[in-house]
Predict the structure of LysR family transcriptional regulator.
Amino acid sequence: MRYDLTSLELFITVAQERNLTRAARIQHLAVSAVSKRITELESQVGSPLLVRNARGVELTPAGQSMLFYARQLKQTVEQLDNELGEYASGVKGHVRIHAITSALSQFLPDDVGRFVALYPQIKFDIEERVGSAVIRAVADGRADLGIIAMQTASQGLETLPYRHDELALVVPAGHVLSSRKSIKFREVLEHEFVGPHLESSVHALLTSEAEKLGMTIKLRIRISSFDCMCRMVSSGLGLAVLPRSVVNQYTRSHKLKAVTLDEPWAKRSLLLAFKKYDAATPTLKTLIDHLRLPNE
């Protein structure tokens, strides 16, 4: 079936307003014209999309489905207009990235910097999110590319290896564990922790590994910023588990020590997540190819 974009735009407005008169006013049309368009859509679909009542209109189940796909189509057309407009003005694309803190704190700034040096007219919107929120944003079309830890369920998205990192125990310089070169996670769980956000990939991993040991994490403070976590540890408020390269930035200024976690899961893989590589824009494909680990 071929749908008229104007009719779909009118339907979205009617669905949002739940009222034909208000929708007609917003679209600068007569109510009869809006009603005719909706009737034509219903005839094309072969099912009622709206239930009319004294207060306005309500969506039928078919109307709910129509609204979902009409919004997706509208967003796609808007993205098409925006990107083609950018090409016309000499800008070669626009990529929206949602990434976990580990990627943003360690790798992404330099990687994007190298990419921009090669393609200086590409624009980026980059947002920091927890892993599950990254997946939702990519699945919903609010982000073109996500970066997650491998422990985060990809929910049907395609993934490729991005980088590897190592989680280490963070302790104050004078702590009883600061002289240790390495330590088992079981020993660490005897101490109180400064932990990350509930939905973060690090929290999910640590909670899962503690449960395997029949233990729980003693959380004194939960905070989302890696910088703030290091400051809290430095103040003696608990221990933390963070990527080693992040901790290395604060060891001198905050008087911290990074102790190796003697656990296989402490070495992690970060992944690129996206809908379909074959259906991606040339700009997005080029970026994915630039970021992915070679030969993996």
